[in-house]
Design a protein that fits this description.
mainly beta; 3 strands; single chain
Length: 53
């Protein structure tokens, strides 16, 4: 899992570890805080997008 403020290690779909909100990020993009304001939420990588497979 990746903290908000760190860079996404790969392009794909991540979700918040607290509320499971799915969001797509590109590799190197800074991961924001969850839009649902989940204070302890971290980003968990779920799957690569079609371009990354």
């Amino acid at each position: 899992m990746h903290d908000p403020g760190s860079e996404a290690p790969q392009t794909g779909i991540y979700w918040c570890s607290v509320c499971k909100l799915p969001v797509q990020f590109k590799a190197g993009e800074v991961l924001p805080k969850c839009k649902n304001l989940c204070g302890r939420g971290k980003w968990e990588f779920i799957k690569a997008t079609a371009a990354e497979k």
